[in-house]
Amino acid sequence: MLACLLVLHRPNYGYALLEVLQQHGFTVDANTLYPLLRRLEKQGLLTSDWNTDESRPRKFYRTSAEGAALADTLSDDWNSLHTAFRSLRGAS
Amino acid sequence: MTTLTDRYVETTLRRLPPRQRPDIERELRASIEDAVEARVAGGEDQSVAETAVLTELGDPARLAAGYADRPLYLIGPALFVDYTRLLTVLLSSVVPIVAVIAAVVRVVDGAPFGTVLGSAISAALTTAVHIVGWTTAVFAVLERTGARWSPDEGRPWTPDALPAPASRRTRRSELIIESVATVALAAVILWSPSLKLKLDGSGEPIPVLDPWLWDTGVVYALVALVLASLFLTFARYHAGWRPVLGVAGGLAQAAPAALLVWLAAQEHFLNPAFIAATGWPEQATRWITPALIITGAVGILSALFETIRHARRG
User: Fold this and answer.
1) Paired residues of A48 in beta bridges
2) Is residue B162 part of a domain?
3) Residue B39: which domain range?
4) Of B24, B38, B66, which has the smallest distance from its Cβ to A32's Cβ?
5) What is the pTM of this model?
6) What confidence tens digit (pLDDT) does each residue in A38-74 have?
7) Smallest CA–CA separation between A2 and chain B, in Å?
8) pLDDT tens readout for residues B44-73
9) Which residues of A touch B26 (CB under 8 A)?
10) First vs last Cα of chain B: how many Å apart?
């Protein structure tokens, strides 16, 4: 979820997002990702627009201000957890 | 021609609320086409690619549940503990009571042992199925409507929320009151034939309770049940709450009440001669039987609630 919020700082659509995440080593299934995007949108963490410029209309998602704030908080949490693990490993 | 994708999308949408359908359909179709296109670009055959993409997406029911944010379980972790606890208490208290009542009714009818046993088992099974079915249904609805069982939900939990053990003194005074009341009740029942409330023509007292009770010995069973319930109350007081003891105590409290209901229904509790001698108007005497039955029913229910309350307190 955090990965979605981070990647979607630049607007993107479902299938492309799936590819980006997989390229970066996140194993996520399509049937998990698509519903997740809609849930995040419903919670106001993402905004969406239909892009009909191309031959195939696609729904582009983008992280909202609220989503970005949450992403910062979650990143901090993640970092402090990471630091905690590192110090644990260093201590043993 | 309907393609595999059409059928997949349609199956998924059928499980979604209508107002979400058009938007999800567009997005889902675009996503599937994107994925198929990518595979075809990688050198796969069109139909092979389509099958592979849909296989990867998995069961449409699962996908639809994800879109609709619908739980894929009947009773979730938030309610599960309450669910099992309530079910345990209900099954361990109601089922034996019903089985005993069914058996007693058959015995009174003079049925052979096999019939008595059969009725008891079938009544117990039917009751158990009903209890499990309805409890599960109610909890499944609670789960889906988002209602929460505990009124404390949303308040942070603190150790203060732990149930306070009833102080030993209050429990002691309850115990004393119950003992005195029980012994007095038993005494009144046993001595009632010689109570001189109404006298017949020859100056002999007319018994308040039906002499049938003494002729059959049922009155001693009633007194024994009342005393057994007192004994179990003492046992609960000294041993603390244990499931077996708690359920046995609840049963013992319910049993005299159940017997009262049955006696009233058979018109075998009060002495008809006594009622006639009181000279009460007929309208009043007609209500005596229903009143006794209601009293007994209230007794059974209070025993049940008491058991549930103790079980919840743990």
Assistant:
1) A61
2) no
3) 4-68
4) B66
5) 0.50
6) 888 888 888 888 887 777 888 888 888 888 888 889 9
7) 18
8) 888 888 888 888 888 888 888 888 877 778
9) 50, 57, 59
10) 64
